[in-house]
Specification:
Chain lengths: 166, 433
């Protein structure tokens, strides 16, 4: 089936055994995002740290209700950004957004995206792109909120309940 | 336009000639993903259109197009006749008087029309007083409403200070009327209820609810978006004071809907959308308005869409609404059996066709509805997979989303079998069976 270009084995693996699922402490910001089309939701926490004068992603954990694509994408995202500087992680996030908007016509940078290139097939199904982006957008929002607050104090004082508006 | 030749009389429960019906719907001949033939099970969202409807709309644009109720020319007269003829046709379809049929943009707009007229009533003079709501008044809805018959009433309460109350649902997806005496009181100004759930197919007893509401002086608004396309509906026995429905769900074009209302109510009701076509006299200081239905039809009328809707009424009446209902009941019974026999499938709502229409929503254990929908799509089967604009109902069932199959005049028993087989395939694909 053509559909196997979307449901790549690596995606199904992450769906069945998601990484970093289950909310953890310490964290600097927590957000709650909802896909208003289908009601899928994700709660996500980010902890940031200082890495030689530059903010970096110390930890990402999430809890979510959703389809295989949204679950697997959130799992892959946590692996892709953790340990990177925020600047590097935002580059990866931007590259993933570009891939998702490509309608299957991108030449993804595998070195930058890692396992996230497996989602290339999803970009051919516009109705599923929001699923794939749910976790990434939550991470971006949480990280921005963490940086607005006191970086790396781990108190989780930046808790937001926001809804994806797009 | 001509009615289909493969017709049966409206009264007899005669099987539809499916081959002939399907031949009227060009889209059913196209291939979709993977070269599979289209199996369209999403008519609850929007129906496909027969060539008779497409031809009628095209004929209007080709030969008669102009602005109805304007224009000092022949085409203007023809457009006006076509538009008003469509009003008569739609009125006949639901057993109404043409003067009680208001054309709107959609069923959603029709429901908003009533809700906004009620808040406008506060400043519309003594005639409109019976529509006015305020603090202490109550607006009663149900937990099974489509967002289109819920959010406008929430907003009405927000604008006026009235209180929103609602009927809950029973575990089998029917309206829980056990607290009716408590909920329908002298404070209740309006009861808004679906005439058929777009998720569970449940058909609430609208006439019974209306009798209770009328005894307390409340108005009753029925959402007929899922009933009028699928079974005979006669406003004479409906019980409700208003009925909203959409053209695009009943083989007609999109862009036009209908609000039926009792004449004496429409006559006393202030307008919602204002502008051209709905005025009597306009001065800089203020304006007066035409009687209904024109009072509620500001702007150049959607004549081509009305003509298409009229052709859809012709098409459905030629098939016979009793026959349409019987066909869908058989498909629904088949689907309830075939899906119900699959381990891990949970069907929302009634498990028999008693007081139940043809929306079959279900969950598949360990496979998200999006993923079920994706596998079905790959096999050429079009369904909806989300909360179907009825989020509170899904919440009441403790689930996020469902996969929904809906049936219409062109669907076959083979398609129901294909649906059940595809659900099994989705289970195998995701390792859930």
């Amino acid at each position: 089936m053509e559909i196997e270009s979307m449901y790549r084995e690596i995606i199904l693996d992450h769906y069945r055994n998601p990484h970093n699922k289950g909310l953890r402490e310490p964290f600097d910001a927590e957000v709650h995002h909802v896909n208003p089309l289908c009601g899928d939701e994700v709660t996500l926490r980010v902890a940031v740290k200082d890495a030689g004068g530059e903010p970096a992603v110390a930890d990402v954990s999430f809890d979510a209700l959703g389809c295989s694509i949204s679950q697997a994408s959130a799992s892959v995202m946590t692996e892709a950004v953790t340990g990177k500087t925020v600047r590097e992680a935002m580059e990866i996030s931007a590259a993933f957004l570009g891939l998702m908007q490509s309608r299957g016509n991108a030449e993804p940078d595998e070195d930058l995206l890692g396992d996230a290139v497996a989602f290339e097939g999803v970009s051919k199904y516009p109705a599923r792109v929001k699923c794939a982006l749910l976790g990434w957008m939550a991470w971006k929002d949480a990280t921005a909120r963490a940086l607005e607050g006191q970086v790396g104090d781990g108190t989780g004082q930046q808790v937001a309940d926001t809804r994806e508006q797009t | 336009m001509t009615a289909p030749s493969h017709v049966s009389t409206p009264q007899a429960a005669v099987p539809l000639d499916l081959e002939a019906v399907r031949a009227d719907f060009p889209i059913l001949g196209r291939a979709v993903r993977g070269g599979n033939p289209l199996i369209y099970l999403d008519s609850g969202a929007t129906s496909q259109k027969p060539r008779q409807v497409l031809d009628a709309e095209r004929d209007f644009y080709t030969m008669h197009n102009s602005a109805a109720h304007r224009g000092a020319h022949l085409l203007g007269e023809e457009a006006t006749d076509a538009y008003e003829g469509a009003r008569q046709r739609v009125a006949a379809f639901i057993g109404a008087d043409p003067g009680e049929v208001v054309f709107t943009k959609s069923a959603t707009e029709a429901l908003n029309l009533v809700a906004y007229a009620m808040s406008n009533a506060a400043t519309a003079g003594p005639e409109a007083a019976r529509f006015a709501v305020g603090p202490g008044d109550e607006v009663l809805v149900t937990e099974m409403e489509h967002h289109a018959n819920l959010v406008p009433w929430q907003q009405l309460c927000q604008r006026t200070g009235a209180t929103l109350r609602w009927f809950g649902v029973t575990p089998d997806g029917r309206l829980d009327l056990s607290r009716a005496d408590e909920l329908i009181t002298g404070r209740t100004k309006v009861v808004a209820v679906t005439h058929q759930s777009n998720v569970t197919g449940a058909v609430p007893p609208v006439a019974e609810i209306a009798a209770m509401a009328h005894a307390r002086g409340a108005l009753v608004v029925a959402d007929g978006a899922q009933s009028v396309p699928h079974r005979p509906v006669d406003v004479g026995t409906l019980g409700a004071d208003f009925l909203a429905f959409s053209s695009h769900k009943m083989l007609g074009p999109s862009g036009i809907g209908v609000l039926w209302g009792r004449r004496e109510l429409l006559e006393a009701m202030p307008p919602f959308i204002t502008g051209g076509s709905m005025i009597e006299v306009v001065r800089m200081e203020g304006s007066t308005f035409l009687p209904p239905p024109e009072r509620f039809e500001a702007g150049v009328p959607p004549a081509a869409q009305a003509v298409g809707l009229s052709a859809a009424c012709d098409y459905l009446d030629a098939l016979g609404m009793q026959n349409v209902a019987a066909h869908e009941e058989a498909l629904t019974a088949h689907a309830l059996d075939a899906l119900g026999a699959i381990d891990g499938v949970r069907i929302l709502g009634p498990l028999t066709t008693e007081d139940r229409g043809g929306a079959v929503s279900f969950t598949v254990a360990d496979v998200h509805p999006h993923d079920v929908g994706q596998i079905l799509d790959e096999l050429g089967i079009a369904v909806r997979a989300d909360h179907h604009c009825a989020w509170p109902l899904h919440r009441a069932f403790g689930i996020q989303a469902t996969t929904r199959a809906t049936f219409y005049v062109y669907n076959t028993h083979d398609e129901v079998e294909a649906l059940a087989e595809a659900v099994r395939q989705a289970q195998r694909f995701f390792g859930a069976a």
